[in-house]
Structure to design on (103 residues):
């Protein structure tokens, strides 16, 4: 795969990479919305089966990670993923949702 990553890095401008990332992020958002509908969490039903919607969602996550791997590097993206549990946003997000420290 490295030869393909290197080819893309050497043949597509940084701007175009960021355009691709924005497109993939939009597709991820659409797949997430479709999953909501397919899983019955919306009154706006869809004929898409839940398994298909979840597959498409994971596929779009993969596409976003792929583009990030070109913009940064595969190693950096793996490093970022390893830091997810340590992200301070977890605390802020939980507090906004009503979390309170237990004594």
């Amino acid at each position: 795969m490295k030869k393909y990553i290197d080819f893309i890095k050497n043949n597509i401008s940084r701007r175009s990479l960021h355009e691709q990332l924005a497109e993939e992020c939009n597709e991820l958002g659409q797949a997430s919305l479709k999953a909501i509908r397919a899983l019955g969490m919306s009154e706006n039903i869809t004929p898409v089966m839940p398994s298909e919607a979840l597959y498409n969602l994971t596929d779009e996550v993969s596409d976003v990670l792929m583009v990030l791997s070109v913009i940064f590097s595969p190693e950096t993206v793996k490093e970022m993923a390893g830091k997810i549990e340590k992200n301070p946003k977890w605390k802020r997000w939980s507090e906004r949702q009503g979390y309170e420290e237990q004594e």
The chain has a mean pLDDT of 95. The longest helix spans residues 14-38. The chain has five helices and no strands. The helical segments are 2-11, 14-38, 50-71, 74-82, 89-96.
